[in-house]
Design a protein that fits this description.
Elements lengths: L7 E5 L3 H12 L3 E5 L7 H5 L3 E2 L3 H6 L3 E4 L4 H8 L10 E4 L5 H13 L3 E7 L12 E6 L1 H11 L4 E4 L6 H28 L5 H28 L9 H17 L5 H18 L7 H6 L3
Parallel strand pairs: 1-2, 1-4, 2-3, 4-5, 5-6, 7-8
Antiparallel strand pairs: 6-7
Helix pairs in contact: 7-8, 9-10
Bound molecules: NADP nicotinamide-adenine-dinucleotide phosphate (NAP).
The site of NADP nicotinamide-adenine-dinucleotide phosphate has 22 residues, from helix 1 and helix 4.
Length: 292
Amino acid sequence: MKECCDMRVTVIGLGSMGSALAAALLDKGVETTVWNRSAGKAEALAARGARVAATPREAVEAADLVIACVLDYDALHGVLDPVAGSLEGRQLVNLTSGSPEQARQMDGWARSHGAGYLDGAIMTTPPGVGSQEMMILYSGSAEVFEARRAILAALGDPVHLGADPGTASLYDAALLGLMWATMTGWLHGTAVVGADKVEATVFTPVAIRWLGAVAGFLTRYAAQVDEGRYPGDDATVDVQIVTIDHLIHAAQKRGVDNALPELLKDTMLRARAAGHGSDSFGSIIEVLRSPA
Ligand code: NAP
């Protein structure tokens, strides 16, 4: 029984992510056609009820809505350029990762072929696809987003960031940077406490609770960043320069790599040199915006 939408959808690209997207649509009873360069990857989905297209053209022509998720934009153009004429009157949702500039170029390309276009960024790994806890960011045509919101909700919580098709990729890049910095900081801390025989599974619940406090700091400093004023009435850059030395010392004593805290300290020192010693940590953005 269809739980979601009475429409046909095509998924192009059945790697780890594309397969998860197609499976989530099938779970909701959506009539789904799939195509992948290596045909074998369609077999598991066919067993669950997907229709397998023999060619990209057949795949595009099988549906009103085409969701693409391949490795990169070169692969995307390689698949779609030869069948561009078939996109006319259809809608293309591109979940392939890329830069904002590539997304904007793709939007122009799709519209020049008469297709509506939405660009997207999947903020989870394949096991999270389909969960409403997980965001999928979209930008581009609000008309396509509103018309297809119910289908897109089958893939994760759909969040529309505005009409500029590059915005989802821009957020994606920024959020992945946040993820890598956070995970590397956590692993560094895990290595430091681990040297004193604290297991990662013991340290991590405390680290996660700390992230809740850190989220509060971000909210406070976001307002300061927007105002361009960084009153150091909670903790100053000067104080944090002294404090980070405790981490550097503890890591050094335990033989743990210190490249990350040294980089962070260097950034704080540059902020102090630029006159932000008595400002809040939010003032670091001034250094990041104007690298030496
Ligand atoms: P993957 O498992 O390596 O799958 C790559 C897909 O791209 C396969 O379907 C592959 O086809 C296809 N492909 C590669 N080169 C191609 C070409 N020249 N022509 C046609 N098809 C080509 O990668 P994935 O994890 O599914 O990632 C797909 C996209 O989702 C990427 O842009 C990735 O950044 C994004 N993404 C992934 C995750 C994640 O956690 N995995 C999260 C967010 C976003 P074959 O099967 O024939 O090789």
